[in-house]
Amino acid sequence: MGKIYVDSVKYVIHAKLEAKGLVDKPDVIGAIFGQTEGLLGGELELRELQKTGRIGRIEAKLERKNGRTYGEITVPSGLGIVETAIIAAALETIDRIGPTEAKISVEKIEDVRAAKRKYIVERARELLKRIMEEELPDSKEFINKVKEELRKAELREYGPERLPAGPEIDEAEEIIVVEGRADVINLLKHGIKNVIALNGNRVPKTIKELSKKKITTLFVDGDRGGDLIIRSVLEEADVDYVVKAPDGKEVEELTQKEILKALRRKVPAEEYRKSLEKKGIKIEKKRERREEKEEPQDPDLRVIMELRGSLEAILRDAEGKEILRVPVKELVSTIKERDDVHSIYMDGIITKRILEAAKQKGVKKIVGIKLGPTVKPEDFGEIEVKTLS
Predict the structure, then answer these.
(1) Rounded Cα distance, 346 and 387, in Å
(2) What SS3 state is found at 291?
């Protein structure tokens, strides 16, 4: 039987053995090969891996005590970490050795890559060639399944409705709302972690509350169902931007390039609302219907009501005269360039960054839609701050 050289070993699996009877080393080795045979597919078959030098000689040091057998098993591996972890997990499925009940528990996978780089490079080239020529679909399935589970580990349940979400919902200033669990998993797969799902056609209370505090982007499938969800969510939640997947595609199947391209083309919610109105579809936020009945008495808030949907900011001097009107995204850079700004009225979220720039330039008042999620009253300094919500 082939032997793997020390220089090509990358990892060693260390496992503990406990058998309820007396067994010998050949029994242990035979059980390992016999009970894992056909379990993982052709490419991860232990006998074949040992023949090709990707798994080394399996060692078992045994000790007998009180009619039982205890021992340590070591398996040297020249495979990648994911494949080695699969082999290790397979060892734990062994439940009998000979006629005796037994249990194998993996303690650790040790990284012991050696220093002879030239040999490793040559051996890796040979292994890669064999993988390309002999790889079987069922083995690929196992590897991809393990990688998929690693991604799912970042998935969490958020709020009383236990909504599928990424790990950065609380700390992020911006969130992306998608339709379902599979959409969340796909965005996590591509490194987007501030994502949460509606998980049904109704708009959960958790989403409504989050949208009041955070910049909210709604990202839906590129089909008729996606259109209906946009209309429903625009009525119930405080959405800032709308994004649709390419026509006929679902968010859960998009590649990283398609996701990023779609997000770069997000449309302000008010602009999307107006495009629907041109088609004869009128959407009114429930909050807007209330505001029609109860218009703010504060003149500053009335200015903000008039600004809604423009994504602009108005800069005024100490006498209340309008100096300049700029897009909200250019507000910080504009503030830093001027010394005559007394008050700011903005169709947007008041963030710490905006407050810091305003304090440095002596701005006395900022009025906006709402505060950023990390902004606290102590961040205001001497600035008077007002919001609609």
Answers:
(1) 10
(2) helix
DSSP string, 69-83: EEEEEEEEE-S-HHH
For residues 25 and 60, give the distance between their C-alpha atoms in angstroms, rounded to a whole number.
6
Buried b (16+ CB within 10 A) or exposed e, 184-223: bbbbbbeebbbbbbbbeeebbebbeebbebbbbbbbbbbe
List residues bridging with 162 in a β-sheet.
none
Asked, for residue 289, whether it belongs to a domain, the answer is no
DSSP string for residues in 161-199: TTEEE-TTTTT-SEEEEESSHHHHHHHHHTT--SEEE--
Q: What is the CATH number of the domain that holds 334?
A: 3.40.140.10
CA nearest 97: which of 34, 46, 28? 28
The type of residue at 16 is K
Judged against a pLDDT cut of 80, whether residue 151 lies above it is answered with no
Within 13 Å, how many C-alpha atoms sit on residue 92's CB side? Answer: 11
Q: Are residues 267 and 321 in the same domain?
A: no
Question: What amino acid is encoded at 358 in this protein?
Answer: A
Residues 6+ apart with CB under 8 A from 321: none
Q: Of 92-106, 119-133, 314-328, give the lowest mean pLDDT range.
A: 119-133
What domain range includes position 368?
Answer: 299-387
**Following DSSP, what letter does each residue of 100-137 receive, concatenated?**
EEEEEEEEEEEE---S-HHHHHHHHHHHHHHHHHH--H
Q: What global pTM score does this model have?
A: 0.43
* Domain count of the fold of the chain: 3
**Cα gap 165→185, rounded to integer Å:** 9
Same-domain check for residues 139 and 173 = no
Query: Residue 229: exposed, middle, or buried by beta-carbon count in 10 A (0-12, 13-18, 19+)?
Result: buried
Q: What is the per-residue pLDDT across 354-388, written as a single tens digit (0 to 9) for each? A: 999 999 999 999 999 888 878 888 889 999 999 88
Question: How far apart, in Å, are the Cα atoms of 189 and each of 151, 186, 259, 371?
Answer: 6, 5, 11, 31
Where do we find the tokens 């591509």? 190
DSSP track, 334-384: HHHH-S---EEEESSEE-HHHHHHHHHTT--EEEESEE-TT--GGGSTT-E
Among 14, 17, 15, 16, which residue's Cα sits nearest to residue 69? 17
Chain mean position to CA 104: 34
List the strands of the sheet with 174-178, edge to edge: 156-158, 163-165, 195-197, 174-178, 215-220, 241-244, 267-268
Q: Which amino acid is residue 240, in one-letter code? A: D
